[in-house]
UniProtKB/TrEMBL annotation:
Biased composition (Basic and acidic residues): 326-346
Organism: Pelomonas caseinilytica
Protein name as catalogued: Pirin family protein
Pfam families documented for this protein: Pirin, Pirin_C
Similarity comment: Belongs to the pirin family.
Highest classification ranks of the organism: Bacteria, Pseudomonadati, Pseudomonadota, Betaproteobacteria, Burkholderiales
Annotated Pirin N-terminal domain residues: 68-146
Amino acid sequence: MNSKTSTPSSVLAVEPLSFPWETLDPFLFCVHHDDAYPPGNGRYGPPAPLLAGRNLGSDFSRQDGWSMYHGQQVPGFPAHPHRGFETVTIVRRGRIDHADSLGAGARFGDGDVQWLTAGQGIVHAEMFPLLHTDRPNPLELFQIWLNLPAEAKMVAPHFTMFWAEDIPLQRFVDEAGHATEVACIAGRLPGSAAEPLPPPPDSWASQAQADVAIWTLRLEPGAQWVLPPAAGEGTRRKLYFFAGAELAVDGHAVPAGSAIEVRAGSAVALANGDAAAELLMLQGRPIGQPVAQYGPFVMNTEQELRQAFEDYRRTGFGGWPWSDEAPVHGDGDGRFARHADGRVERPATPAGE
């Protein structure tokens, strides 16, 4: 399919996945990074001549199956500012090193999620250190931008860690014995007793009427499952079918690499084909406010955008307390989060660490 198509039933539109993925209010942005990084060079970077065929500093080439992004020696995104929205980073494989202008740092991955409220302004770095020199360092993640309503755009910055072991994972087996797994990063799965982890306090997702849900779905070959209707009136819902072969959505055949908007208020029957299928679902009631965006700042008016740039030039959103624009938190792949107040948290059951 090369264009949006209108279809009957609960399927409203189908379109090919773009880069970044197109989103619906209250979401602003979604991107899927899937990089086959090689063994590291002992300095957390790839053992490759980085100038050969790469626009170093802005390398999204996927040459040899991976990109450096804005990293010069270590892949990733060195220090950069945000204001007026939230980032939700879901790391499916590998490790990310976080550092920010509040002095907080973290290393997380393999199912962990970091939820960062930029609010009035924060500078952070997201680096992808190649920790292993004896084997490849694959990295796969989603980064999702969730808008903040006008009354929350200037709240204090805040970051929350959702460790993989604490994220509710539901497993459903159909009559033929094929399983569907649903990980609920945000939002309760209707009919489930599992309690989702609380979003940051100033998030749009923390408002009950917002009906925000962020779920990942994995269907075994041949699996069938019914996605239950959303609870909220006016909610919108989109499925991103990023891995697999073919999926029937309410009887409509959809190829992998598709984004599917469905009626949020309707149950949606999913019937998988011959290969395991994986989807990301983003759902929420629109904030419905004007969006003024330029690069890393998302406000409601052009004047607020100009003020964001002026504030950043004047204050640096608190400055940068790290000695490097692209900090890496040493050897070893143990997961941790060190908050600005000095509090350190780790997963309760760090399997394999």
